[in-house]
Design brief:
By secondary structure, this protein is of the alpha+beta class. It contains 13 helices and 34 strands.
Amino acid sequence: MLALLLLQLLHGGLGIPSASQRSFGVDYARNCFLKDGEPFRYISGSIHYSRVPRYYWKDRLLKMKMAGLDAVQTYVPWNFHESEPGVYNFTGDRDLVSFVQLAQEVGLLLILRAGPYICAEWDMGGLPAWLLNKETIVLRSSDADYLAAIGRWMGILLPKMKPLLYQNGGPIIMVQVENEYGSYFACDFDYLRYLQKLFRQHLGNEVVLFTTDGASKSLLRCGALQGLYSTVDFGPGNNVTAAFLVQRHSEPKGPLVNSEFYTGWLDHWGHRHSVVSSSIIAKTLSEILAHGASVNMYMFIGGTNFGYWNGANMPYLPQPTSYDYDAPLSEAGDLTEKYFAIREVIGMYKKLPVGPIPPTTPKFAYGEVALEKVGTVKDFLDDLSPSGPVKSTYPLTFVQVKQYFGYVLYRTKLPRNCSEKTLLSSHGIHDRGYVSVDGIPQGVLDRWNIISLNITGNAGAYLDMLVENMGRVNYGRYNNDFKGLVSNVTLGEDILTDWEIYPLDIDRAVDQGLSNKMSDGNISSYEEPTFYTGNFSIPSGIPDLPQDTYIEFSGWTKGQVWINGFNLGRYWPALGPQITLFVPSNILVSSSPNNITVLEFEKAPCSSGKCLIEFVDRPNINATVHRESTSEKLFTRDVFLDHI
């Protein structure tokens, strides 16, 4: 009884509402949110738990809190939790419940963008690739198979979130339904109504459900639905009054909300790193807050596309491993000039929290590490594809062989002699293919530039095409992005048939360890897709190690890298702009040597004897690039206009 009285005093007598007293809603009469019966305006920032190691969640959340934020906003990538149908993962870095609880522990409210589609420059916009098992599926529509899959997924996700709603004692004040649907071609109101009913069924009628669309009447026409609160998004330099007038077209009463105020912008391989000045961010943020509006800054920390999680845009432009976004907190969580400029603006409109700001985490340059060549993909084929090949008259896509990420090796035999350079063509290679004949490299095909090349070889020689999935389209109507050889391959005028198709489980093989398979006769060949391994030890006698670091690939071309079995992501210094990859300290060990595995697709520097990578203490994600086209400028302009 005494414990109960103390609990009542804590929650009632000291002004802290109990779960039964907590409420969050929209006050249409006063054009504001109401939190526990009082007018409320939130200042929020986006953080994607899927792009930040769990080890660093608290560090990043504390920095956001100390910037003056009331809330954080996060996306839920469906494919991050259900990469294979019916197999759910909410552990480790995928423990969404723990992330939400940690935000509350830090003192932050949370805005949940539950999907099912999120965009986010994430592979397929968060939709799982296995949805494409039905080739004719119409994603983000009332397609019966799509709705059935959503129903099953939300039946898993939303019950986990319900106890964490604000009125139930948790930090979640609002839940977004779908994402920027007005920018999609389908304009299917039956689909939105289905989602609304599904969310209400699982979360109840009290939670604020909302939508987000670009600040344009044309986008709100298909993105808004009665019963879902309409918010808008727009970037710096825009006319804030005009943008909110667009929201008023859909929501004549209620709080003004910018759900995505862009603090930076996204990157693509082969183009310049996006940078937006702190001064223009601060100026527009101040204008938004002067309107009394609620705002979410996208991104407050971008993070990293570890593994294969990056997305792509059309015309096909894949995004790099870094998702730094030129955000107030860097990819590694470092405090930036922009962080302090934003904090200063927020301090003009509310009292900032008292206490120290967690410092930038230290970085350590572990130096050069020698690697050795251990074998080509062909040498390790039995280890990489233990079940053997799928045989088919014509090529099959990744989805058809149940390979959703990474790489697939396509193999057939040359039907005739190609002694005078015969043209090999594929108009349907998604996304990049490394071609060899009997182990002799012939060149590279890709979906955006090179669709044919000349090859030589004798009849009966093995033609291998190692095809790389560079990331599925995350925005627009083409996110039904099939990977692999999606159409036939021709040799001159002949269609090649009788394929052996090897799905490659490289992550598993790397985790188990790759032992040297090179013979002395092959040691001079450095141009086939090849594995290299090495190790390094954390120096002893230095306190607080291991620390974060960056891995640099001087002289290397393009590939994938793992440390201690953890897939760091793709490197492509030959194209840029990203040169270094962020290595969080939590994947490093000091008790034994750290293992490095590199899969280089084209050319390593090892033929000159300098078979090295280097760990440095500073990032380089803004190097000079070798390709920039008008398509990039058009894409950036068009997408930005879609958002405003």
